[in-house]
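dumping this here before i forget
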Amino acid sequence: MTLSIISQDGAFFNYTNAVSCITCGKYENKSGYGFMIYLNGDTENCIVVAEYDSEERFNEVRDNFEKWLRENIDAVFAFPS
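structure:
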């Protein structure tokens, strides 16, 4: 089964189409923390798949996401609110 991720707004992405997934931490000019992906064929435009107001919540989700990537725990990773 193909690994997939679901963004906070419900968009579905095939992870194998991702060039990279970036945990960007604190944004410039913003107060939040987030996750972005770049898809094959579009390395100039990132897609924000999740944003968090709290660094603690961001770190918790990042740890779960990294664990999922290492262990392929589930076929789908849905970013929580």
